Amino acid sequence: MRLRAAARLGAWRRLRQRGRAGKSSGDHWLRSRWATYRHTHAAEFETLHRLLVGTRRKQTHFLTRWLFLRGLGIIYLLAFISMHSQVDGLIGSDGILPAAEYVEVLETAYNTHWTTKGQPGRAVERFWKRPTLCWFTASDKALHALTLGGVALAIFLVCGVAPIPCLILLWVAYLSLSSVSQTFLGYQWDTLILEVGFLAIFLAPGNLRPSLKRESAPPLVVIWLYRLLLIRLVCASGLAKLSSWDPTWWSLTALNYHYETQPIPNVIAWYAHQLPDWCQQLSVGGMFFAQLLLPLLVFAPRRVRLLPFWGTVLVQVLILATGNYCFFNLLALLLCILLLDDVAVQRCMPWRRRDDNGRPQRVWAKIVRTICVVLLVAVTVPVGWWQMKQRALRLEMTERQQKIVGYLAPFRSINSYGLFAGMTTSRPELIVEGSHDGKEWQTYEFKWKPSDLTVRPRQVAPHQPRLDWQMWFEALSALRQLEQSEALKQKGQQRPREMQPNDWFRKFAVRLLEGNETVLDLLQENPFAEKPPTFIRVLIYDYKFTNFDERREGNWWRRELLGTYWGPKRLPAARPAR
Fold first, then answer.
1. What's 472-516 look like in SS3?
2. What is the Cα–Cα distance from 88 to 75, expressed in whole angstroms?
3. Which residue from 32, 34, 73, 507 puts its CA 20 to 30 A from 100's CA?
4. pTM of the complete model
5. Residue 424: pLDDT above 70?
């Protein structure tokens, strides 16, 4: 029996060796044939390589990372400066939606104070559900510390000082403000800057004072995560427009309305609105091409990647020139930088040079970064795809996927995007007026949103006047309620006695009746400087751009009164004006 088993084992080993030899000879034959083919067509291969790649230098991203981190630092700087100039009026102790009151509401909802002894698990759960440093204190000084601290950290990041600690603290500071600002920091670019800033923690060099000659190579995996983020941002915007079945996008007429109905138009938007219909339709078609087809070339060789780079840059520059969208366009342009490598960047920065070989990373640092990057990929890629699938393609997530997304949602660092999915075809505007006697009314003028027909639309981005922006959303809500009321009237049904403004707008009106100086600083001027008004009312107007003939008369806008949104209201027991 043993002899038979040994014979069988020997025969099996001989067959295995023959198979290996045949496989080896087959591989050798394929390699030799491929080498012969390449040698025969060397000129064609050289031409193809020159067209698609363009250089035989190793593709590195040292200069790309250097430029990206400085750009991110500048955007953080603009964001914190913009928020600091408004934080008192928006979420300060005397603001529209005080952060301190909101934290107290959350403490009641979570059923225990964060400092409660013997319940550390509840404290951790609270920080997870609402990650903010304002749990310690949400006073005005704390809010100023967050905004001014963000300004200082952004300057350090621009100067290249301790990039990883600065990026972590910047992310924590902006997340802390976003978590307690409620409606005022809930825009897509507020979540986008958090996602970009979070990924940058894993991209930045680990040195406290890095230089191009001493830093290790950036992780290529993180660069590809940024490229996937760009695809999610751009493609999702294009897909969301189509999946919404908005007739203006499908008929290529959306830009006929976009320039005059956007939240805060600028003067270039007025001129763009005057373009002929064929030009507007051609622009929409070009936008779809840049958002749906060009991003797919992100996976192509380096020279082909220049097509999605320049296409996205062109679209973002045009949006930046014809509207006021805070720092959103700057973030999109910043993501485009990571489509380039050092060869392309160095042509624009010839004074910045470095060797192609980075400094070797220490073993322990390499292990830690590898583990962190693997975990990052394992979480961000599937969660980002689930969110994009739901928002852009209108496909529902499974129950398990919803739990995972909901578990990570409070950190706002893996998000869904889809700008302008539905185009507004009219521009309602709310005009807030005050009066002492209920007969003679004076208008509260805002700094940036349209009101006076003769005031030219202005450029305000990258600063975002968040109260003016919220007034645009409130006006859309007012128009929907007005249309519903008219529909009930036509059906012969009873209409509601009055429209219902959002909670923040009611509190804003109360601050005006109180004569609150902190909130009034957010407006252009106070028509009741001597004494607060007794009554407040809000009217709805339909605003439209004028044409060239009407513009000669001095007006940029024309308007039509639609009705009364709210009021007249008075304050029965107002607290003393501050």
1. HHHHHHHHHHHHHHHHHHHCCCCCCCCCCCCHHHHHHHHHHHHCC
2. 21
3. 73
4. 0.87
5. yes
DSSP string, 434-487: EESSSSS-EE--BSSSS-STTSPP---TTS--HHHHHHHHHHHHHHHHHHHHHH
Asked whether the predicted pLDDT for residue 481 surpasses 80, the reply is: yes
CB-side exposure of 313: number of CA atoms within 13 Å? 12
The strand pairing partners of 569, in sequence order, are 536
Q: What is the pLDDT of residue 54?
A: 59
What is the identity of the amino acid at 354?
R
Please spell the DSSP secondary structure of 162-196, one letter per residue.
Answer: SHHHHHHHHHHHHHHHHHHSGGGG-SHHHHHHHHH
Instruction: Read off the pLDDT of residues 358-368 as tens digits, 9 standing for 90 and up.
Output: 566 667 777 88
In whole angstroms, what is the distance from residue 143 CA to residue 463 CA? 18
Q: How many CB atoms lie within 10 A of CB 203?
A: 25
**86-114 mean pLDDT:** 86
Residue 436 in contact with residue 534, Cβ under 8 Å? yes
For residue 158, count CB atoms less than 10 angstroms from its CB and return exposed for 0-12, middle for 13-18, buried for 19 or more. middle
Q: Is 54 exposed, middle or buried (0-12, 13-18, 19+ CB in 10 A)?
A: middle
Which residue is listed with tokens 């409606």?
Answer: 183
Q: 328-337 and 62-84 are packed helices; what angle lies between their axes, rounded to 10 degrees?
A: 170
User: Hey, how many other C-beta atoms are within 10 angstroms of the C-beta on 59?
Assistant: 16
Question: Residue 574: pLDDT band by 50, 70, 90 thresholds?
Answer: very low
Task: Report d(CA 542, CA 479) in Å as an integer.
Answer: 9
Residues 6+ apart with CB under 8 A from 274: 545, 547, 548
Q: How many residues does the chain have?
A: 578
- Helix (H) / strand (E) element for 72: namely helix 62-84
CB-based burial label for 466 (10 Å; 0-12, 13-18, 19+):
buried
DSSP state, residue 360:
P
- pLDDT single digits (tens) 195-246: 999 999 999 988 888 777 777 888 899 999 999 999 999 998 889 898 889 9
Dihedral over Cα of 471, 475, 477, 482: its sign: positive
Q: Which amino acid is at 258?
A: H
Given a contact cutoff of 8 angstroms between Cβ atoms, the answer to whether 179 and 134 are in contact is yes
Average pLDDT over residues 78-85: 95
Q: Is the dihedral of CA 345, 347, 351, 352 positive or negative?
A: positive
What DSSP string runs through 325-341?
Answer: -TTHHHHHHHHHHTTS-
User: Can you tell me which residue has the tokens 């080993």?
Assistant: 13
Rounded distance between C-alpha atoms, residue 157 and residue 152, angstroms? 9
**Rounded mean pLDDT of 524-539?**
91
Question: Residue 382: how many CA atoms within 13 Å on its side-chain side?
Answer: 12
